[in-house]
Amino acid sequence: MSTNCYTNENNCAGYTTIGGFRYAVQCTIWWNNGANGHSTMTFQTGQSHDYYVRYNDVGSCIGTQYAPPPNSPTFYLYVHN
Q1: Which of the residue ranges 31-40, 58-67, 72-81 has the most confident prediction, judged by mean pLDDT?
Q2: CA atoms of 42 and 3, how far apart (whole Å)
Q3: Is 69 helix (H, G, I), strand (E, B) or coil?
Q4: Cβ count near 75 (within 10 Å)
Q5: Whole-angstrom Cα distance, residue 16 to residue 49?
Q6: How confident is the model at residue 73 (pLDDT cuts 50, 70, 90)?
Q7: Taking CA 50 as the corner, what is the angle to CA 61 and CA 53, rounded to the nearest 5 degrees?
Q8: End-to-end CA distance of the chain
Q9: What would the DSSP string read from start to end of 6-30?
Q10: Which of 2, 15, 11 is nearest to 51 (CA)?
Q11: Pairing state of beta strands 48-53 and 78-79?
Q12: Which has fewest Cβ within 10 Å: 16, 19, 54, 73?
């Protein structure tokens, strides 16, 4: 498994940091584990958390004053070491 990569790269797995926004956000991680599941979390201004992610997991975040994350664009997650 490699780090310092995005989850659209083969063998990319590790921890990604989500959050750190200047406003409150709701984020979803869409897990590519065969179950098509997802996890949704809310961050207040400046809050963040690390999550273990793997190849083809994607995220979406949107300000809490807008529609929930399923209506926002998804992005590949950056895995750091």
Answers
A1: 72-81
A2: 25
A3: helix
A4: 13
A5: 8
A6: confident
A7: 80
A8: 11
A9: ETTSTTB-EEEEEE--SS-EEEEEE
A10: 15
A11: unpaired
A12: 73
Map residue 37 onto helix, strand or coil: coil
pTM, entire model: 0.84
pLDDT digits (tens, 9 = 90+) for 22-51: 999 999 999 997 677 899 999 999 999 999
Q: Give the domain ranges of the chain.
A: 5-79
Question: The tokens 């273990």 sit on which residue?
Answer: 52
Distances in Å between the alpha carbon of 72 and those of 28, 66, 75?
10, 9, 10
CA distances from 69 to 15, 66, 73 (A): 21, 9, 8
Query: Which structure tokens are listed for 34?
Result: 């065969």
Q: Are 16 and 80 in contact (CB under 8 A)?
A: yes
Task: Decide: helix, strand or coil at residue 80.
Answer: strand
